[in-house]
Design brief:
The protein is an alpha+beta fold. It is built from six helices and seven strands, in the order H-H-E-E-E-E-E-H-E-H-E-H-H.
């Protein structure tokens, strides 16, 4: 009797286990099929040679090249200033009666001596200009020399009130002028056009000024000389009050900012190099953490 009970119990357990296992197996197969039907997504790997990375990598190279170019420009500017300073220290030379215009650039900042009479009727006001926080103009006046030729002389700064009243202190008779040879100024994009018919001169166009003073027919040469002033501050103040132009201090006033450009470009190159390397290492670490398919 007990043997029959055991047989019946075992048969019931087997039937029960079979009925439970079949739904579980079917459910598992259905989940597997569903997962297989779904698309597989993988994290996109960032290429280290992407256009963005190449562009960022070129910025340090470009800024370094610009810094190197500015070093060369700095050396050139220093050599130029040294050359002009050496010319300025030489003894003054008499200005020839006829000047070869082609060689003027070689004699820029060279001291010269010339004699003649002022042509007040063709004087020009160049400006506006500022001297010691005072507004005014530079007085350009032709100098008629004994040999018949005429050159232009920048006599220096006069105040705005003196220019308005045209009360220029102009000696009569022959005068001796000590000055420096200069060439035409380069006009920038912000400088207005000159209007000779209105007496408006914003930049030193030597050829146009020579034509205004009479031109070749009157033997006016397109040559500009800056009169030199070597006095002290008291002399300058006295000149200003009496309407006497204040001439040019004999120094080389060429602007030289290339050293700051060198520092700027090399600093940008170092900064962008640091940023590029940091970004490159960050991308490499991110790429190393991604799963490989």
């Amino acid at each position: 009797m007990s043997t029959g009970r055991h047989l019946f119990s075992g048969l019931r357990q087997r039937l029960s286990s079979r009925g439970t296992a079949r739904p579980i197996q079917r459910h598992a197969r259905w989940q597997h099929a569903e997962q297989a039907s779904q698309p597989q997504y993988a994290a996109k790997r960032s290429s280290l040679l992407s256009p963005t990375m190449i562009t960022l990598g070129l910025i340090p190279v470009l800024t370094f090249a610009l810094g190197t170019w500015q070093v060369q420009r700095l050396k050139w500017k220093i050599d130029l200033i040294d050359e002009l300073s050496e010319k300025l220290e030489r003894e003054p030379i008499p200005l020839p009666s006829r000047i070869n215009l082609a060689v003027i650039p070689e004699f820029v900042y060279r001291k010269v001596i010339l004699r003649g009479r002022w042509d007040l009727g063709h004087s020009m006001l160049l400006g506006p200009r500022v001297w010691d926080s005072k507004s005014g103009f530079h007085l350009i006046m032709p100098l008629v020399r004994d040999n018949g030729s005429t050159v232009l002389v920048d006599r220096g700064f006069v105040s705005e009130s003196t220019a308005a009243k045209k009360l220029f202190s102009t000696p009569e008779g022959e005068v001796e002028v000590h000055g420096m040879l200069r060439d035409s100024q380069a006009r920038n994009n912000f400088t207005p056009d000159n209007h000779p018919e209105k007496g408006e001169w914003f930049w030193a166009d030597v050829a146009a000024m020579a034509d205004y003073a009479g031109g070749e027919s009157s033997n006016v040469q397109p040559v500009l000389v800056e009169e030199i002033f070597e006095g002290h501050a008291g002399d300058a103040a006295m000149r200003l009050s009496k309407g006497v132009p204040i001439g040019k201090v004999p120094i080389v006033d060429i602007r030289n900012a290339h050293a700051s450009y060198v520092a700027t470009w090399y600093s940008l190159s170092a900064l962008t190099t640091f940023m590029f390397v940091r970004l490159l290492l960050k991308q490499r670490r991110t790429s190393a953490r991604l799963p490989r398919l």
